[in-house]
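Lab notebook, page 48
Experiment: co-folding of the full assembly
Goal: obtain a model of how the components sit together before planning crosslinking
Operator: M.T.
Materials (sequences as entered):
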Amino acid sequence: MENILTVSRLQKIRQAPLFEPVSFSLGRGEGLGVYGRNGCGKTTLLDMIAGLVKPDAGEFNRAGRLGYVMQLDGFQNALSCRDNLRLEAALCGLTGQAAKQRVLACAEQCDILSFWRKPFSRCSTGMRARTAIAAALLPEPELLLLDEAFSGLDQESYASVKKIILEKKQAGAALILVSHVWEDFTDLCETALTLPDANRRPI
Amino acid sequence: MRVLRIFLLDLRLLGGALLLLAGGFILCAAAFFLSLPPELALSGDPPKISIALVNHDSADMAEMLAGMVSGLEMVDKLYVVDEAEAEALLNAGDAAVCVTMPAGMIDALIYRGRAEITLRARDPYIGAISLNVTTEYVKTMNRLQETALAFYDGLRPLYGDRQSLYQAARAFDLSMLQEALLRARNVNVVSAAEPYHLQLAALLLFLIAAFTAAAIAALTARQLAGGYFRRLAARGFRAAHICAAKALLALSAALIFSLAALPLLAAWNIPYSGPRLLLSASVLTLIILFICTVFTVFRPAETAADAAAARAALGAFALLLFALFAGGGFYPIHLMDAGFRALNPAWLAHLLAEWTLGGQAPPPLSLLACAAPALLGASVTWLGWSRL
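Observation: model returned without errors.
Model output:
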């Protein structure tokens, strides 16, 4: 099976190395959890894979399109969820009718049509989380990065968001899910990487 | 294309802020107009003022000079009084300016000595204009006297010594000066008031730049704290794209507001042209970018995007208040202490806008000096990007 992502001894050094060199590979439909305390470098690892941050050591090879659900969603509060998604589609390079259709499809998949005309500033945490996932799904990613995607969600929203991610995984996307709650990895990840020691173990 | 995408979104988000900017601009313009004498505010003509003249020189020529002052186009009434009466007229507001001619002034003029004419005014703008006009007259008299003296040097052998020569030429001197001063076109009173129109136009344009910078800084701070730039980075956008989009936004705003200032320029008879306005808009853009970058990048780390935006806006407005003072909003910048002006950050931008609007080419060094903050701002932006 072709690997979507191959990471070899990846490391980021600030005053000292943030974590031990990380190595793993991820194939289609595979899920990897990244677990650790606050400040151990979980987000930095995702940023390196997404290309936001340059690694100080090691390398990685990524095949396919990327979707990234960030901790800070970066959406415009003054715009509606729909307009934020349209903006994201434009940033992905989607234009015209193709962009509209794709936005509608992702909105349906993430069940946000009931509130997507609402200004983003007035959306609840659960609504914002689902909109962020819809945005990450716009480029039809083969690799999905999720940074604390379940943070602050109530039980209903938690179940809803998990269901969407699971559907995407079952459709063939590889996942990397960052969380400091071990139970978040259930059903979504086969293994988990703990930082800063970079040990990988089964869920 | 990527730059355009960021630019169009920023424009959409700034829509409301631009309306506020327009309102702020109108308020500032109204404040300046209200602070000026009506004639100066509404047209290019200097105001008519009443003058209290204190004449300590007993020479006939001094009295004649005093009489000529009353005939000047900018003089409404002339009171020839003593010191105490002049003080009273000034305090009561019946006279805008008190001019004191010292004893021996005419002799100093004729025999190339020194004399000090004192001006006192309650309104700094009127005082500055009076100073300019008086200086122009004194320069004219000095130039005429120098010309005459150069001619007299050729006649010295006929009289033996300089004193005798001057004594003989006194009557001619006086007639020449009288004739020259009575001819208004030797002294352009209108041009004495022009610097203040230019100063006001430059100050208003500077404030436009500062207000625009505050809005862009607040928006950018909000975007930075809210993670928008990280989202852009994840889609392959680079710092260069963002900087270029902000520069385009600043230039657009500067151009639009510069065009809106055209009616003021026309009312004040300040010559303008497309290239000149474009140059002044470019100068404004550099100022906007610098102020925006400083307040965007050097904001403290905030978890709430709105708090970051509010702090950036507050900081920018504090700078605006200082800029209002430093830029001459409360007191004419030309009358400020030279040492303070040299340290005044608004002075250079002010001068550049004045030169541009006044039709003069700015010295190349000043353009380089203006580019320095922009380059510094760009460098700081790059450094700030690495903090994301």
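Interpretation: The helical segments of chain A are 42-50, 81-91, 96-109, 125-137, 155-170.
Next step: discuss with group before ordering constructs.
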